[in-house]
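hey can u check if this looks right to u? its 153 residues, i copy pasted from the old doc so theres a chance i mangled smth
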Amino acid sequence: MLKQINKHNIKVKETTMKPDTIVKQIQGATLEATFPLAGKFSYIIDEPVEDGGNGKGPCPVELLYAALASCKAEVTQAYLEKIQVPADKIEIAVEADTADLAQGPLKIKVEAKIHAELSDEQKKRLEAAVSRGCTVAKILERVNEIDTDFIYG
């Protein structure tokens, strides 16, 4: 069954899928992502002007890296609060060499700088907690296939 979903007369097949994220095209390479299960959040996603976009927002890969970095930072902050150790600052940097994606598994490098006074034992436990608790990292570590269904209406 097809139904109209917005003012642009875009039609989709009804499905039982309850998406975590819905992305729609706004103009050219500029997209809007909404997150129905998390509330009424929406973000503009775009490509840089030099790559054919409008430069109005981060590109999808930057959002992926931001999701990973913020997940690691949130778990770090939660653990520090749990052990009642204040942090002056938590900085998470993410990078990956995406130059040749056809060359096997991609390695993503995460560097976490935690500006807090921690014993060696607390550092060890923090690292284990972040490894166990970052859902985004767990998803990325396990994904080896993405199945895309194209539905035309």
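Residues 1-15 have pLDDT under 50 and may be disordered.
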